[in-house]
Design a protein that fits this description.
Layout (H helix, E strand, L loop, with lengths): L1 H31 L4 H12 L2 H12 L3 H26 L2 E2 L3 H21 L3 E2 L1 H27 L5 H8 L7 H33 L3 H13 L1 H12 L3 H19 L1 H6 L2 E2 L2 H22 L5 E2 L1 H20 L4
Antiparallel strand pairs: 1-4, 2-3
Length: 323
């Protein structure tokens, strides 16, 4: 048991590290071949924080653990809002001024409702997975079009400018390629290590596949979003901090949840829809109320409320870990 915990932590560390290096190398290569920093920021970097979830989802699905994969999506989205934005708002209240964010928030709610529609029958099928991937591609194209309009307009969008500045510069092709190769090698290996040892721990404590995805794996794979949000708010880039969370939640549902649907269509644990979906929708709506309110902000009190919601939910899961 202790050995499984140690290997789980090692797998998690290497998962996050390798995902970061893969995205760094891919972004640098893209910039070197002439792709604009804005396009890279809206695609490669935006998807980068969801890379751990994507790899874990694929690994779990291939091992027949579709409940774990879906639990990872639902749990990560809940953690992104309730845990990560809660912590970030406690550090510094988040002011939201970006027009892009005001458009993305309703989109996040729409995509969240779509997840509920697909999970309503407690089954995730192949064609549902394909639908999610098609919508994911459409979302990326739409965001690129919006970003291009914002760039050419007289009014600059702070989030888009900050996102473009995150693209690595002055990185040689060889160095970038090395990081891509290292990331591609270590990422699937670490994801497999994480999933395998999570299963061992789950079996030891009698936890269901769904709960292990909602708890340990979800929180672990959300660490890149936590780091990005804290770094953003410390630099005064509040829109960037919130934007990472909104983008990650959309990516998780459209791309990450589409993976198990395609690789391993399955009947799901009824609690995924009957319990966890509603928690995800609830915290998503709570964020919208906070962010689009009169103050256009998430203050420390609201951050504390989000954090309390997260710990209450996790406590409930631990007390009902077999469900």
């Amino acid at each position: 048991m202790l050995e499984a915990v140690v290997f789980l932590i090692i797998g998690l560390v290497f998962l996050v590290w390798s995902a970061d290096k893969l995205v760094f190398g891919a972004a640098a290569l893209a910039r070197n071949i002439g792709i604009s920093p804005l396009v890279i920021g809206m695609t490669i970097l935006a998807m980068g924080s969801s890379a751990p979830e994507m790899m874990v989802s694929a690994t779990a699905a291939l091992e027949g653990k579709t409940d774990t994969a879906v639990g990872n999506v639902l749990g990560s989205n809940i953690a992104n809002i309730a845990l990560i934005l809660g912590i970030t708002a406690l550090i510094k209240p988040l002011l939201i001024s970006s027009a892009v964010l005001r458009r993305e928030l309703p989109l996040m709610i729409g995509v969240t409702i779509l997840a509920g529609v697909l999970l309503w029958d407690n089954h995730l099928g192949f064609y549902e997975g394909v639908l999610l991937f098609v919508l994911f591609a459409a979302f990326i194209l739409a965001m690129l079009r919006i970003s291009h309009k914002e760039k050419t307009s007289d009014i600059a969008d702070a989030m888009l400018e900050n996102q473009a500045l995150e693209v690595p510069d002055d990185v040689s092709n060889i160095k970038a390629a090395v990081w891509v190769v290292i990331g591609l090698i270590i990422l699937p290996f670490s994801a497999s290590m994480l999933v395998d040892n999570s299963v061992i721990i789950a079996q030891y404590f009698g936890m269901s596949d769904l709960v292990i995805g909602l708890t340990i794996i979800a929180v672990g794979t959300s660490l890149p979003e936590l780091a990005a949000s804290i770094a953003g708010v410390m630099k005064g880039e509040d829109d960037m901090a919130v934007g990472n969370i909104i983008g990650s939640n959309v990516f998780n549902i459209l791309a990450v949840m589409g993976i198990p649907g395609i690789l391993n269509p399955s009947i799901l644990n009824e609690y995924a829809m009957g319990r966890d979906f509603w928690v995800m929708l609830g915290v998503s709506l709570l964020l919208v109320v906070m962010a689009l309110g009169k103050s256009r902000s998430v203050n420390r009190l609201e951050g504390g409320v989000l954090l309390c919601c997260f710990f209450a939910y996790q406590g409930y899961l631990v007390m009902n870990m077999t469900a």
